[in-house]
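User: Show me an example of a complex going from sequences to structure tokens.

Assistant: Sure. Here are the input components:
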Amino acid sequence: MSLRQRSFGFAAASAVFLVSAACSSALCQESHSPALQGATNGTIGPKGAIETRIESHVGGAVPYAASSRLFSAPKIVSGGLSSFGKGRIENPLERSFNGIRPAFRAGSAPAPQPALRRAVEVQSIAQRKERPGLVGWHESMTEACAASAKSGKPVLLVHVLGNLDQHFC
Amino acid sequence: MLFSDSSIAKYIDQNFEPVWESVRPVPMITIDFGNGRKVKRTLHGNIASYVCTADGRVVDVLPGLYKPDTYRDALSKLVTVARNAQSAAERTGSKSKYLATYHQKALLSIRGIKVPPVTNTAVVSHGLSHTPSDVVAWPELTEETTINETQRRKLIHEKLAGMLSETTPAQLKPWLYKDVLHCDLDDPYLGLQAALFENYPFVD
């Protein structure tokens, strides 16, 4: 590869980095804009239109190591438990580039690098799966009772509103 | 919070066969501030922890949220009660009599407890950012635990002591959520209709 080709490649990569950084920055700053609300409820709103234009420029998966400073956001406090920042919801472009594994899915496998041409899905924060504490829960009361008959240990059944493996319960 | 505590989780795994069930979707409130900011919270609800024998019959119930150490202490007593109930069933063919006696004794024990009245009703500020371990130290949780162990468990012991036959969590659930936890599962507004609509000047 000639010096000119390498320089061009570096410039192109830098341009991609700067474009994505600029968009990430814009998304962070405008994450509270009413125009961008549509993307937080699972529909492809104006953010989807922005991300599609980015994808058309790049034309393929590009490795991108985003700095966490690009999309740090204030935490939302919910019922005494800290939620992750709004940036995690409103900046799916970053997840597309670097497959960041959200903190609330600790223990799960890292998200694969999606192709940039694939539509970005924004999952409602309320529907995200959480680890239901550190207890080794049985799948059903039937299973727990069967295990109890074998082990001699009593069954502990916990009733909750909502689902223990979701963010809000 | 409770089940994320490693010592509680370890204790439960070692001494119980744990399982959780959802009784209904959690009611949520979303506040749209109109400037793009939205805040989402749960509105109402509670948990109930049933200790059961292997045939799915209820031994006792811990209503609501507890401080971890009180929860573990209560569970440790119920491990013994459950095992004794199972032994009684193996000996006599039924654990009803043993459980009825247990609940009557527990009721007498609770009735002898003097619960200090709540004197400080001021809302305490806990700041804007906290972890589950911070919540454990909140006085509100201590108060809730005291209410669970006295007022709510008293109702449960009265109910179970007076039952002629063994019961299951599914049979107990409607009464428990309505009369003990004040979250009527059969009410579409979960008992909040008055709070939501009384004195509200506009018709939805």
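The lines above are the inputs; the final block is the predicted structure for all two components together. Chain A has two domains: 3-124, 129-169.
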